[in-house]
Amino acid sequence: MSKAERLIEMMITINAKKDFTVGELANEFSVSKRTILRDLKELEQAGFPLYSEVGAAGGYHILKECILPPIAFSESEAKAIFFACQALQFYRDLPFEQETISVLKKFLNCLPLDIQNSIMQMQNKVVFWIPDRHCDSPLLKSIFFVALNHHAATIRYSSTYSESMRTIIPVGLYAMNGLWYCPAYCTTAKQIRVFRVDRIKEIIEEKPYPKGRYPIPASVQEYLERTEVKKDYHMKIQLTEIGVKRCESECLLAGGLKRFPTGGGIIDMEINHAALEWAADYILPFGNNATVLEPVELTEIMQKKVYELYQHYCKSE
Predict the structure, then answer these.
(1) What is the CATH number of domain 3-62?
(2) Could you count the other beta carbons within 10 Å of the beta carbon of residue 18?
(3) How far apart are CA 94 and CA 92, in angstroms?
């Protein structure tokens, strides 16, 4: 490894470590401590934000909010990074919205002009479209940091039918179909519930909670994997060809959709109890293009909704 390559690798390494000793770097890069000290001096002279502490517990530390080291990208890697950022552009709110905008500006300005032009041309051909839900989530970043800090939050939450105060312990955040969701342990319900972030109207209090007291997944990925395999009900819905086409665009149902060679199809999948209401609301506008076969609980919810519609529109005065 050349000296230039070692310095770049060292910047990446110490930026990831934040705290380190000369001996640790010497072992990692298989060079002497004297060589590491010379390299660190060069990095400091180049403006890399390091400071040192003497003594038994001393070592080198990197300042917070530091400038990241330069990284070389191939043209294909540059385009991949750009499109990864573009995939977020139609979300009304992002945890780091302003930072995302500044990153793209800096990134594009550092690229050669021909690659900039190539990226802009591709931008006109590829869009990661997300429907505009007209739902602002001004507390998205705050909830993100509540989850990141492993804290509990007392919130004012506006559900479909009422507004209430809840104390929740967020697992994390996930985005789907243009909306942000926060699975969190609700101390009132004593179980994990999913909260729409745009419906969180206020964070009244944030504080640490006793570790190990509540059954909370270690990550939002773990929560989603658990949800996928949860089997409260076996759902079967017969569909006409029109019904099949409408279900193909809904990611939660497409995984259980099976087409028939002769036309139409069927949704055959497991569903958890919390999703029954959502499934009824989604399938109801299908009219006679969908017929619920199982479970009976879903049929009963559909019947109740149809009756309420009848009472609202058709009941005689």
Answers:
(1) 1.10.10.10
(2) 12
(3) 7
